[in-house]
Design brief:
With 367 residues, the protein is mostly loops. 10% of the residues lie in helices and 3% in strands.
Length: 367
């Protein structure tokens, strides 16, 4: 019976491709209700809720769902899947910077969830956000509920959504309540007005969504993140991708202890790496103007944001606020195989060698 039920689970999960609209970028679900929901959490006197491994779970989910966030979003990306997989049962193919394998824009929870050490001896706990949803990742024993750069602690362990999470309604007390109804709502316009109309269901955040969630992105096919060219350290446009990170890591973005240097202004010399800062503000001969090399093509391994998100930037002009540094220029939101959720192995980057590493995409004279 267990094997048969697992077959049903994986068959149903595979069938979810039929539920989504033809455009992969849309998260609006259409199709047979029974693939996602159960009326009574009972069939043949067995529970109908399943965990990420396909095993029945005794405790039913809210909103009558068969699966939680992790169970729905666990799998291997192949470029054709219509459900974005943010975790896997085996190590994802990451490559040097996560742009050539089967890892999506946000990275993967695999390393932190499985307790697998990362590159250069990085501890598993440092490789991803340790979300408690569906019991995916254990509590961080070093940081507990105190995000780096935070002025206040979380109320409890981080979750996918809700008051202790990133997605959905951040006033809701559970993942399910935070996202409830969103997968059935209109998300054709991303303006931040509702959860469904927000970038990747990050309520209030805007941006241009890549149709395949940045599966092997290119200069012409990638997310276009929203940024703002700030003029002061305390300025905060709450629609930008960096402002999302600042909800927990606020001193790394906006706050008295963020990046103000000895001159007390929002300028070099920085004491912390700037975010929501446009490299177009630098001198015409600055090393940053060599971003991407000749012609300044957009670099998917070191993405920059823009004020205008109406279309994908294929090249950077350093005008019109199109070279804005963000938190995710360096980090991945879910996790990576590197310490501190970095896009590349920071410990392997060495100045003066002409080598690789996304640091050198902006700091071009340091190679």
């Amino acid at each position: 019976m267990k094997a048969n039920r697992k077959w049903y689970y994986y068959g149903a999960l595979a069938s979810m491709g039929m539920l989504l609209m033809a455009a992969p970028a849309s998260a609006k679900v259409n199709g047979q209700c029974a693939i996602c929901h159960t009326m009574h959490n009972s069939q043949d006197n067995k529970p109908m809720a399943f965990d990420a491994d396909g095993d029945p779970q005794a405790t039913p989910n809210d909103v009558l769902l068969l699966r939680g966030c992790v169970a729905c979003h666990t799998g291997t990306n192949d470029g054709t899947n219509v459900i974005p997989y943010v975790s896997d049962t085996s190590a994802p193919t990451y490559g040097t910077d996560g742009t050539t394998g089967d890892t999506l824009a946000g990275g993967s929870f695999y390393w932190v969830a499985s307790g697998t050490a990362g590159n250069s001896g990085a501890s598993a706990q440092s490789t991803g956000h340790n979300v408690a949803t569906d019991g995916m990742a254990p509590q961080d024993t070093e940081l507990l509920n105190n995000p780096p750069g935070a002025t206040t602690s979380l109320l409890a362990q981080l979750r996918c959504a809700g008051v202790n999470g990133c997605h959905g309604d951040t006033t809701a007390t559970s993942d399910f309540a935070a996202i409830s109804g969103t997968h059935h709502a209109d998300d054709t316009v991303i303006d931040g007005s509702t959860t469904a109309k927000s970038f990747r269901f990050l309520k209030g955040i805007v941006g241009l969504e890549d149709p395949d969630w940045e599966y092997q992105p290119t200069t012409t096919s990638h997310n276009q993140y929203k940024g703002v060219d700030r003029t002061s350290d305390t300025e905060d446009d709450t629609s930008t991708i960096s402002s999302l990170c600042a909800r927990c890591h606020n001193d790394f973005h906006n706050g008295d202890e963020n990046v103000q240097g000895p001159n007390g202004g929002f300028a070099s010399p920085w004491v912390r790496h700037p975010t929501d800062f446009d490299m177009g503000n630098t001198a015409a001969d600055a090393e940053y103007r060599n971003y991407g090399g000749a012609g300044n093509p957009y670099v998917v391994s070191a993405p920059v944001a823009s004020d205008d998100i109406s279309a994908v930037k294929t090249a950077i002009t350093f005008s019109g606020d199109d070279a804005i540094v963000t938190c995710i220029s360096c980090h991945r939101a879910h996790g990576s195989q590197n310490a501190d959720l970095l896009r590349w192995d920071y410990a392997a980057v060495s100045a003066g060698t002409g080598g690789s590493g996304a640091c050198f995409e902006c700091h071009t004279s340091k190679m």
